[in-house]
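Lab notebook, design round three. We kept the backbone fixed and only want residue identities now. Task for the bench partner: fill in a sequence for the structure below.
Input structure tokens:
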């Protein structure tokens, strides 16, 4: 029998979900008027900015179905493995030269270089009408995130940030559990990571000592828009993430993954935090971010969701213990990257990418049945973007979704620099009680590397 009108369940969730799913996100109508639209049967011509490290996996995931037509990387040694697998693809040290020579052959661009050049590289692609996949944390500053979002909308290109958790089944299940009211109203969230730890040094012992530039590296192109400085192996090729001029520390590396599920489920991008504060920092370095921090964001009510306190813990070697949570309800499992939602009717935890979503204590999962799906499911993180490039549904972490998320998250990076609570006015886009903190909302660009492309 044909269903006439909405079901009782749809009516119930209607008010709850009003505004919860962004109009440009996870499952909107197709947008066949995108720039450079191609039939789903045609292959995209994709260029890569950053071919080593994470760039390798980004390229290989897209090369399975699409054409790789150009690459740019200032570090020949780091890109060597990729270059050997694509010997006939044109290669450049400087992505500006790549656009000069190859732009007419490019439909879409992968941006997988260090954080400090994400925004500029992505913007150069967008203003040329190229679809963009940009690695997390999208950009290094709040201003860049907002500008990329506006540009993607203006030039009508398909975009995706590289936070795989937004494509994860578990992340969607977490949303549906929260929206079904199964853990009640959530007023507190904790999230944690083991980074930086063994992944890169970030503490007082780090000193970027000058050294000769290796023959395989174009240091000027690697610096890009950053202010000039001598080369040091402390920066390049891998440890740049711990330096404020180049990376965003543990927040930039992992928060886009770990905080993605809370951001989606609790609609955090709908209202800026009212404050952010670095409650604790250990191992404060002269050149790097601290070795360990605890950062607290305070969010106002969002729709029918109450005010929320979200606390970020980094550089942990084991699952943290939480104040106010009974011992027999502590997580217990060895999750070194994850999040915990504390509701007034129960608790929910997820892994780094939204995986292993479950109620706690574990006994609550014995007879639990997940709510019926409300959100569309992703065909896969890269397929999500490729489909969008060809006129399909917008990718789940497109810039209209990713930029607001990243913007509030990056306030925590600024908070590491200061003592005390920073009060934030999202309407005016400024800290109201610390003028010095406002300096870090927008980068300074070196001549020749202008943001507008």
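Proposed sequence:
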């Amino acid at each position: 029998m044909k269903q006439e009108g909405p079901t009782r369940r749809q009516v119930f969730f209607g008010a709850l979900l009003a505004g919860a799913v962004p109009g440009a996100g996870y499952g909107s109508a197709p947008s066949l008027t995108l720039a450079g639209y191609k039939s789903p049967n045609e292959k995209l011509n994709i260029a890569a900015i950053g071919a080593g490290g994470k760039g390798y996996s980004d390229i290989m995931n897209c090369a399975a179905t699409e054409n790789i037509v150009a690459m740019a990387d200032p570090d020949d040694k780091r890109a060597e493995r990729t270059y050997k697998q694509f010997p006939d693809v044109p290669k450049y040290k400087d992505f500006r030269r790549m656009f000069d020579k190859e732009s007419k052959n490019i439909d879409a661009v992968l941006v997988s270089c260090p954080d400090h050049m994400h925004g500029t590289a992505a913007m150069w692609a967008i203003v040329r009408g190229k679809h963009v996949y940009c690695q997390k944390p999208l950009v290094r500053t709040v201003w860049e995130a907002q500008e990329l979002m506006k540009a993607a909308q203006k030039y009508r290109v398909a975009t995706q940030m590289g936070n795989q958790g937004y494509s994860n089944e578990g992340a969607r299940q977490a949303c549906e559990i929260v929206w079904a009211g199964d853990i009640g109203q959530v007023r507190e969230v904790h999230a944690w990571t083991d980074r930086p730890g063994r992944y890169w040094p970030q503490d007082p012992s780090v000193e970027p000592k000058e050294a000769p530039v290796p023959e395989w590296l174009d240091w000027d192109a690697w610096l890009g828009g950053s202010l000039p400085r001598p080369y040091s192996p402390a920066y390049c090729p891998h440890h740049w993430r711990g330096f404020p001029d180049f990376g965003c520390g543990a927040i930039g590396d992992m928060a886009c993954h770990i905080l993605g599920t809370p951001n989606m489920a609790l609609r955090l991008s709908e209202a800026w935090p009212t404050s952010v504060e670095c409650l604790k920092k250990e191992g404060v370095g002269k050149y790097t971010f601290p070795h360990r921090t605890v950062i607290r964001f305070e969010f106002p009510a969002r729709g029918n969701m109450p005010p929320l306190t979200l606390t970020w813990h980094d550089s942990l070697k084991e699952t943290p213990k939480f104040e106010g949570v009974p011992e027999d309800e502590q997580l217990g499992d060895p999750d070194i990257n994850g999040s915990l939602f504390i509701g007034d009717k129960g608790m929910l935890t997820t892994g780094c990418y939204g995986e292993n979503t479950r109620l706690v204590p574990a006994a609550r999962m014995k007879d639990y049945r997940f709510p019926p799906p409300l959100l569309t499911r992703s065909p896969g993180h890269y397929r999500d973007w490729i489909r969008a490039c060809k006129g399909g549904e917008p990718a789940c972490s497109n810039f209209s979704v990713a930029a607001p998320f990243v913007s509030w998250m990056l306030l925590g990076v600024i908070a590491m620099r200061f003592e005390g609570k920073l009060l934030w006015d999202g309407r005016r886009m400024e800290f109201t009680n610390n003028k010095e903190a406002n300096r870090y909302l927008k980068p300074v660009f070196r001549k020749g590397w202008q943001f507008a492309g």
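Keep this in mind before ordering anything: The mean pLDDT is 90.
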